[in-house]
Amino acid sequence: MHLALTEDQTLIQDMARKFAAAELEPIAAQLDRDEDPIKNRQLFLANLKKLADLGFMGLNVNADYGGSDAGVVSFSLAITEIARACASTAVTMSVTNMVGEVIQSVANEEQKQQYLPKLLSGDYAAGSFCLSEQGAGSDPAGMKTKAVKDGDQWVINGTKAWISSAEYAGLFVVWAVTDADASKGKGISCFLVEAGTPGLIIGKAEQKMGQHASTTNMVSFDNCRIPSFALMGELNDGFRIAVAELAGGRIGIGSLALGVGFAAMDYARQYITEREQFGRSLSSFQGLQWMMADAYTQLEASRLLLMNAACLKDSGKSFNKAAAMAKLHATETGNKVCYTAQQLLGGMGYTQDCPLERYARDVRVTSVYEGTSEIQRVIIARELLDEL
């Protein structure tokens, strides 16, 4: 097995690392505090446009549509580096890449030509997935939002919940029930809805524990009329599309958690080499050395799981189980090592004078969105049993 990165993958990783250090890290704490919402929003959107200009909003999309055509491994590497500096930017980038991928995979040629260049160039600040609902999060097949055909239009009614980037997204991929009589999950279709469409209503931003710069909103559809050609893919085939895209999204969120975990441990590692207790460096105490060794070992295991899932997807092989394993391990590890890093700093790790408390808040949701850790275990177990 060849584990070395290609020259192009290394170049993308380095580019993401340098961008994160120069543009994101200096303002990450400011964006988190949200003391000047208007200015912070401008800064955040400006950096999204810069990422688009670098080709980071369509890393696995064909160059014919404005994508980078760099592959899933490059996508994972880039998300990890961006998340080291700002998890809010990383999640927006991850979801926008997902939107680009699902359009490339499922949309017809006219839809690809119409929407992908705008999404990948930054004309649309971001893309959003409208899948989850209050009663259909871990069970999206139970959604209640409906789309009814009326002449040459579809009329959508319903409400979606926890929609990332909704306030500034230019394009929404929306799932709705189109055949209420079909068995569960069989009568769902997928639509493309542009921001500003009458009847598309962005609700208030959720007051979240972390990832403050990335807005999360309720999105309602009140007799939202869209043209018939807004249907993406086959009628009533939307649930299959959602399941396939969620598997890819798990690589993105796992990579995000990995980046935050590395940022936390790198900060703590540097701190314990500089801090002294009992007349010697904290880094000389074996107990702290072992905590550090365990944390980095688990982070490296997460990285390898993510690379495996990304390689499988790049090669066109089945990657559902691998992505679930990678997401489960990386997000649980990210949560654990952020607290390990705080413990290494002692009381200082609990203050806002260092970034660890932000890392701990930002990483917490990674084991919830794009499928909870419990759902990942269900997927893994099901795949294992199906192999028998």
List the helices and strands and how they pair.
Elements: H1 7-24, H2 28-33, H3 37-53, H4 72-85, H5 87-106, H6 109-121, E1 127-130, E2 146-150, E3 153-164, E4 171-177, E5 188-194, E6 200-205, E7 216-227, E8 231-232, H7 238-274, E9 276-277, E10 280-281, H8 286-314, H9 320-345, H10 356-364, H11 373-386
Parallel strand pairs: 1-4
Antiparallel strand pairs: 2-3, 3-7, 4-5, 5-8, 6-7, 9-10
Structure description:
There is one protein chain. The protein is α+β, with helices and mostly antiparallel strands. The protein has three domains: 7-126, Butyryl-Coa Dehydrogenase, subunit A, domain 1, CATH 1.10.540.10; 128-239, Beta Barrel (Butyryl-CoA Dehydrogenase, subunit A, domain 2); 246-386, Butyryl-CoA Dehydrogenase, subunit A, domain 3, CATH 1.20.140.10. The protein has eleven helices and ten strands. The chain has helices spanning 7-24, 28-33, 37-53, 72-85, 87-106, 109-121, 238-274, 286-314, 320-345, 356-364, 373-386; strands at residues 127-130, 146-150, 153-164, 171-177, 188-194, 200-205, 216-227, 231-232, 276-277, 280-281. The strands form three sheets. The chain has a four-stranded mixed sheet. Strands 2-3-7-6 form a four-stranded antiparallel sheet, covered by helices on one side. It has a two-stranded antiparallel sheet with strand order 9-10. A hairpin with a 2-residue loop joins strand 9 and strand 10 (280-281). Helix 7 (238-274) runs parallel beside helix 9 (320-345) and helix 7 (238-274) packs antiparallel against helix 10 (356-364). The protein is globular, with a radius of gyration of 21 Å. The mean pLDDT is 95.
